[in-house]
């Protein structure tokens, strides 16, 4: 329907119908329509709406969209997106274009520090938007600070769900929920309410390790600290869900010798480069198996019925190998092999 409206010259009508959808559905619709219809809608959609949409796109898709937009429109789009999403897309843009965009962004001070980290590390995944209270605050002072923060930044329930506590140097000391703060006595100190046993990760921690910690300990927001223990960002659960999906896809592809970036209609030579070594190894083992069979050719000539069992034996061997490989890959993914090896060594 969107493509038909654009073809008929009713681009504004198509935009209105697109905006009736939820943000995630808008992103999916834009990806699925033709390039011509995409370009037409990208030109008329407000920059603030595009900032929300790119948060639900893969980085490659967001980069493709941004490359078709006017360069002066990108700063507003990235200002409307979360800082870590903007950083991910800016890393993938041409360096010259990225520098021009950053120079015009209002949120550049929040985005620039994130560009220093790898996109698969906690530092590249974190967002610098969070609420941090001083441990010397009273409950009344802390509530006033939260209200002020909400007026300036926006009352986003995601950021206000859990509050972190730091000292005067910004070092992470603990955390507490907003419900704890609201229900406590107004004169009570935050340091007496906070949970000091809080789990955090460093900025260089791999995203898979961070995801494993959040899954194991049921953490909804994982604080990220620098080398001096200062709180610099937070990894939220909704971002980690995407990481878990990417890691699961990577493990499944690796199990059968495929690259995560490989697409069904992707470049032909990339598929050849990734698959050819594994196919050569498989061919070598098949030739070796055939040679072993020829050694017993005289026996099979005497008992022809043995030939009927060759496919059965090969099939059973393939099934057993696939099951074992799946089990090992899954155990590596969940770090069970590493724990078992460590336990055996101890």
UniProtKB/TrEMBL annotation:
Q: Does Translocase count among this protein's keywords?
A: no
InterPro entries per the UniProt record, alphabetical: CBS_dom, CBS_dom_sf, Mg_transptr_MgtE_intracell_dom, MgtE_N_sf, MgtE_transporter, SLC41_membr_dom_sf
Q: Name one GO cellular component term.
A: membrane
SUPFAM superfamilies, alphabetically?
A: CBS-domain pair, MgtE membrane domain-like, MgtE N-terminal domain-like
Q: Membrane spanning segments where?
A: 276-296, 308-332
The cross-references to SMART domains, in alphabetical order and at most eight, read: CBS
Keyword Nucleus belongs to the record:
no
**Ranges for domain CBS:** 194-250
- What highest taxon heads this organism's lineage? Eukaryota
Q: Which residues form a coiled coil?
A: none
Q: Which UniProt keywords apply?
A: CBS domain, Membrane, Transmembrane, Transmembrane helix
Q: Single GO molecular-function term?
A: magnesium ion transmembrane transporter activity
Q: Which PANTHER family does the annotation name?
A: MAGNESIUM TRANSPORTER MGTE (PTHR43773)
Supply the name of the protein: Magnesium transporter MgtE
